[in-house]
Records
---
Amino acid sequence: MGRETRYTVVGAGHGGKAMAAHLALMGFQVTLYNRTAENVAAIARRGGIELESYQGGPRGFGLLKLVTSDMGEALAEADVVMVVVPSTAHADIARAAAPHLRDGQIVVLHPGRTGGALQFVKVLNDCGCQADVTIAEAETLIYASRSDGPAQARVFAIKEAVPLAALPATRTARVLEALSPAYPQYIDGISVLHTGLNNMGAIFHPALTLLNAGRIESTRGEFQFYIDGVTPSVARVLEALDRERVTVAAALGIRARSALEWLKMAYDSTGSTLYEAIQNQPGYRGIKAPPTLNHRYIFEEIPMSLVPIAALGQRYGVSVQCVDAIIRLACIVHQTDFWRRGRTLDKLGIEQLSVTELTRYAMEGLRE
């Protein structure tokens, strides 16, 4: 696959619009799918998306082949399907796509959060999808972007290296090869257990939001989220969460990156504690807090990131008291049972698997 690779982007939020426009500007045939037709009416009328960028990034008018809210139409010609929606919608997308997928197609979740590819495959199987498709997930969204209008998007930055893994991992090389003409930034993420457990948003976003709940509600988020919101006490909670995540990964035989290592890798920011490293990261300056607690940092990250991490910990004998405490706080604040909504192991199709069986499933796709 080269320039003739036909892409379908699922989702017309800031990330989906940025990706669709960028792919079109790179010369690829791009279809944009969005469940709600009126949300993409302006894009359909104009025939594409206007992309702006900082620091010499991609810019211009990305002309799209098709804009549709019909999943069958969206998938009919696609070689690669880029799913750029909140992870709370992954199961719905899988159900909608199941009757229309065909052999040889590649579906990539941007990002998977924790267990995205596992859940997607489970839903396809439950729907009786017979097509031989490859499901993969990225560890994080490659773009830092925002929506500037109904048919406009803006890219602040494109990450230089983003781990990606297919389920099973034996297919990762094929996915990387298919994406490389457009995105040489994707690198081998080892397995979907690695990409799922190196989920940094799970550590930084929900706890930081909940521990600043009073301030967010009284100021409507008018403070610097990471600089003012991360005090020494808050950072200690983030460190405890991070320790539990790394320990859950270790129980599965995975050496996950710690938050400190990640800050060093992503931003070259260092410190003897997480508090110091965050305060030493100039990129965090000026980033405002969420204006409300009704935010994806809670309603997405709790059920799709922290619940599966806690569920894995409970299944494989790791104490996840701090993760559990944050989930409980979120349930109280939102008056919602996030455990019921979240990615528990039965929803990932792995509740019966031993560590050895789970590893084999992730690496080779083999079930006992």
Note: The chain is about 45% helix and 15% strand.
---
Amino acid sequence: MDNPRFCVMGAGNGGLAVAAHLVLKGFPVTLFNRSQFRLSGVLARGGVELEGEVQGFAPLDVVTTEVEVAIDQADVLMVVVPANGHRYMAQRTAPHLRDGQVILLNPGRTGGAIEFRNVLREEGCRADVIVAEAQTFIYASRALNPAQVKIFRIKNSIPVAALPATDTAQALSLIRQAYPEFVAAPNVLKTSLDNIGAVFHPTLTVLNAARIENTRGSFQYYIEGNSPSVSRILETLDAERVAVAKACGVDAISALNWLELAYDASGSNLYEAMQNNEGYYGINAPPTLTTRYISEDVPMSLVPIASLGEQFGVPVPTFRAFIHLASILHQRDYWSQGRTVDRLGIQDLSADQLHQLVTAGGVW
């Protein structure tokens, strides 16, 4: 059996890391980006240089801004862009998709696969494709220059679910040939609502706004940017997330338990566990408030969780507060721009119908 063919969509540091690593693993790869600027370095060098945990030069033969060229022969579309770009990618690919292709969002944040599938439906796409999402991104990576990326770490286990979940095994049968680290999750509500970044990133950024602006992020984000009082706010936000998940039929992991599972960091409360996490030491805050910790995490994570909570009668005052504060900071209406249940196309579903949609499909 021939290796599956991949198209990597997005040429940021994450997309370049995925594309180059796939080439070094021996898989055929095309690289798509909507702007030529991001591709110029790769085109000049003829590929991507990897450093760190994976090393080597990966030649790329097809590097293009033409989506129909990029995805034409691909079996798997690896979408590696900020979640704000998922809608655009769905719109661009909809006319050119073909039966049997697998689309994986890396990661989906909250509601990524639901949004992508809904946009394909709105665009009249009739191709029989599988849309799936990863709970988190597989690499910790940074771009060193436009055609050079350092992979600091490859994560051990990445939960993945398709929409509906009955398609997960088929999607993984292709993806795991390249990435055995991907494992099956129960459904996309589980991958979406076990989104711990939704708890940590916007909250710590908003609460440290003055310090970020005054020091340009010159402090340890998770350690010095946290305190017992701040952690109580994090715990309240996290409890609301877990309650929303429960209303959706999902047994979400708490942030405290996640820290122990992911980092072997424990404590009697969230503050102690974060202070005991060696993996957080040395990570500085973002240098400005113009950061994806707000511009991506608020509309693509906080908004959909809060919107689901309000749809199913779960109080989410802390979520609403941080969405409001983030909107003031960036002078944008993140609620209207974010993944509300209306924009996801699930506003008329009961909790049982939503569970049916993500597990077996058919409700739409």
Note: The two ends are 35 Å apart (CA to CA).
---
Amino acid sequence: MIKDIIILGSTGSIGQSTLKSLSKDKNFRIKLLTTNKNLKSIYNQAIVNKVKNIIVENEDEFNKYKLKFKKKKINLYLGINNINKIIKKKTTYCINAISGIDGLEPTLKAIPLTKNILIANKESIICGWELISKKLLKYKTNFIPIDSEHFSIWKLIANEKKETIDKIVLTASGGPFLNKSKKKIANIKPSVATKHPNWKMGKKISIDSSTMMNKVFEFIEAKKIFNLKKNKISILIHPSSYIHAIIYFNGGIIKFLAHDAKMTIPISNALGIKKKKISKITIRNIKKYNNLNFSIPKNNDFPLLKILKLIPENESNFEIILTTLNDNLVNKYLNGKINYISIQKNLLYFIQCTYFKKFFKLKPLNITDVKSMIKITDNYLDKNIKFYDK
């Protein structure tokens, strides 16, 4: 049976990995691809994958390319609000591969239109999990995380009772600056900071990996997705990125899930694509098994891990403020407006400043509340940002 699929954010790294996973698989039919403004890439994706519906968010790019798409009889729409015009009945799958908080609204719009939503968008889960979970329940849509860590946890605890889980461990590579002197990286250039040792990722998430903010986000995600208390989650440094999650169960049993650092693996498995393969035991395999090399991360090496103690147990605006601060600061760094160390220093300062504390007592009730909190946070940061030399 043919399975229909929507890919939100198909031109990003996760979207490209999804298309690679689907290539040459005749069991899937792509009903819709979306992008913000990368029309050149999505045009090629549409031609190669025979996709007839495209959504773009950027009006200038829409006007520039609409005739080109029309000549190929590809329907080009402006804005995610058009998704209901395209999808008339529930698809089998929808993958949200959109980067940043911009992925939340498309997630909420897509849930009623699919039987299974696969999410790699951290910000959607962190800032709007309560909104997402309510929609999942209302429309009877299944949720599958496809970040390698959360997919691994999802697989490891399948058919296990929650009360038997003693501890969940997220693994972190340590990024490109593991064991590097803080003085040497204070003014490091983005071209160096975005070179992840194991994964091919977008610039923003690569910076988050280097500061360990990515792992703070994954900690919050795990807490929300699996409904866990903070003391049930830990982080370990694992430079090879081979083990993606470790679960300690009551009774002394420990499970872990391993796979190569390729996003096609969790995506393919989440979609039920399992190509037959007889694996060989090689010297390369054995070296990986014998050199797992775990260590406990230190706050002195990764200052943003201090944020873990500040995370509230209950849903609040804290997560929206944290995500917005980080997005804004990383964007400024990538555009040459602040140096590397100013990302960490500003983030730690603002997330603890008096101004935001009053908002931590509230929680978003809808997407409008989320957008309002983002605007308030951006405005305050832009007016009060500091520049640090060391």
Note: The domain at 3-145 is CATH 3.40.50.720 (Rossmann fold).
